[in-house]
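Q: Predict the assembly, please.
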Amino acid sequence: NSLFDSVELAPRDPILGLNEQYNADTRSNKVNLGIGVYCDDQGRIPLLKAVRQAEIAQTEAAAARGYLPIDGIPGYNKGAQTLLLGKNSALVAEGRVLTAQTLGGTGALKVGADFLRRLLPGSKVAISNPSWENHRAIFENAGFTVDTYAYHNAATHGLDFEGMLAALDKLPTQTVVVLHACCHNPTGVDPTLDQWRKIANVVKEKQLVPFLDIAYQGFGEGLEEDASVVRLFAELGLTMLVSSSFSKSFSLYGERVGALTLISASREESTRVLSQLKRLIRTNYSNPPTHGGTVVSMVLNTPELYALWTQELTSMRERIRAMRIQLVEKLKTHGVKQNFDFVLAQRGMFSYSGLTSAQVDRLREEHAIYAINSGRICVAALNSRNIDYVAEAIAKVL
Ligand code: PLP
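A: Predicted assembly structure:
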């Protein structure tokens, strides 16, 4: 008898399963809108020039690869804080902000979830309906019960703001609320800043625990604008957690670059909290890897590279925006009467297109266009070569 006799086959990751199917598809006109990565107009994941330059400098420096500190590279963490809170943050000056370099945004969520589970053993977690599917899995895996709060309104293709506020208002004190700080995945629907103010007030009044997830900073309106929600919560004096991902903004998916940032009540509290985070990390993966962190830190802390990076990020954001506009126009050109203007109001890489599961199946079977059955499409996978074909195919299956 094998030790592993009783081990059951785990369900396949739905998105990765779709990718495998796409890779095996031999039709030459195939298009993958299922993935969650930014592709350039040639349909490739770009290697940013700022990243390349930092890598060359790093290679030339021929530095030894000792262990990093448990919480990562100090300049990286400082850079992550500046992206979130701005250059002259009073909170940072007061020592109330602490950051650990993590293995992507996923790693930040996981370390944060493990920390909160010990701190708040009686609390539940609430995520948006719908949310990035790994949110539920990460928090459940950390031991939490995960509920949802209303978010997307399928009828209006927008935010169910009243429903969201009402749901948050009903949550027990100290419920951990996971909020997408910008560019909601999977819907692309974000609250307005005014709506965020009301959300933040409920979070404060009800003494909920905000865990802001920011995986697409720079893909909405701009680096500074996209941090507004984090700054709004911080200004209300809320103690909170923030998970940052640089996977998309630096196009460094495989390097696992992310950060967990906590805002505490005092410098002394920060010291205690950081000591516990370090203990969690030490007994998990010990310390983060050097390469991606060094590259990101170099870009964030070298003015010329930073300027180049923000230009490249702007081009990525503007290309996605252009694809949204073209998709809506081309759908009209192909005779679609249904109003798709909501796609223009959505932010970030994704769009909840409103396509039904049956329509998504037809796109795949009849046109070799792959999307998620929820109707989520990755707008960042559209380009000048495939957009006509995609618009025409959507028009045919509607
Ligand atoms: N949070 C959200 C909302 C995401 O969409 C993603 C990635 O898809 C992540 C976190 C995790 O990012 P990373 O790849 O850096 O772990």
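The CA atoms of residues 109 and 243 lie 6 Å apart. Residues 36, 104-106, 132, 180, 185, 213, 215, 245, 247, 258 surround pyridoxal-5'-phosphate (CB under 6 Å).
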